[in-house]
Write a structure and sequence with these properties.
Helix content: 25-40%
Mean pLDDT: 96
CATH class: Alpha Beta
Structural class: alpha/beta
Low-confidence stretches: none
Bound molecules: 1-O-pyrophosphono-5-O-phosphono-alpha-D-ribofuranose, uracil
Number of domains: 1
Radius of gyration: 18 Å
Order of helices and strands: EHHEEEHEEEEEHEHEEEH
CATH topology: Rossmann fold
Length: 209
């Protein structure tokens, strides 16, 4: 059963407020998304398994711990997912990064695939699909499906803001994928934008319109 986790850490919520604000310009928007991505990565890795190792400090031997288990792969959905990659890599620097290119057709709101490049060993990795926005859920669901068709077995989805419709769609399509978000908003508007949301994440990150 897919679970939904909402990261309510005060710093995440504080920064999200300024990310949402229409008066926040591209430079600051980009910096804030990067910072929130780091904080969310800290939360999403909370239950990583540890193993004991013995090392030598300058004083004595020490039994201590390192992260064990499967290696991590990040899969941003282009374009807007790119804005969260560096923030996550700051604390998971060895993660490999695959890219899924999808855009949402403005008329049908259905995702259109245009790019796919993945690490060769995705079946052995714990994958985190990254996209700031989970609106209808079409893009995230399609990205997850593409990864599964390439052999991925263990997938999490991490988004800044989700609409209830998107959460339902992903949970219906991918019962095995847990969803991690900073906020669940009220609804989608007639154009499939999240309300109140933050507008068009790609445009705000890259300064396009
Ligand atoms: C945005 C966003 C998601 C998608 C969410 O991308 O980054 O990928 O929309 O909408 P959905 O849940 O209804 O599929 P967009 O299609 O605008 O492409 P872009 O990142 O290239 O701007
Ligand atoms: N994509 C965005 O960038 N924003 C939304 O609100 C919905 C889809």
């Amino acid at each position: 059963m897919s679970k939904l986790y909402v990261f309510d850490h005060p710093l995440i919520q504080h920064k999200l407020t300024y990310i949402r604000d229409k008066n926040t310009g591209t430079k600051e928007f980009r910096e804030l998304v990067d910072e929130v991505a780091t904080l969310m990565a800290y939360e999403i890795t909370r239950n990583l398994p540890l193993e004991e190792v013995t090392i030598e400090t300058p004083v004595s031997l020490a039994k201590t711990k390192v992260v064990s288990g499967k290696k991590i792969g990040l899969v941003p959905i282009l374009r807007a997912g790119l804005g969260m990659v560096d923030g996550i890599l700051k604390i998971i620097p060895a993660a490999k990064v695959g890219h899924v290119g999808l855009y949402r057709d403005p008329e049908t709101l259905k995702p259109v695939e245009y790019y796919l490049k993945l690490p060769s060993d995705i079946a052995e990795r714990d994958l985190i699909v990254i996209d700031p926005m989970l609106a209808t859920g079409g893009s995230a669901s399609a990205a997850i499906q593409l990864l599964k068709e390439k052999g991925a077995q263990n997938i999490k989805l991490m988004c800044l803001i989700a609409a209830p419709e998107g959460i339902n769609q992903v949970q219906q399509d991918h019962d095995d994928v847990d969803i991690y978000v900073a906020a669940v908003d009220e609804k989608l508007n007639d154009h499939g934008y999240i309300v109140p949301g933050l507008g068009d994440a790609g445009d705000r990150l890259f300064g396009t319109k």
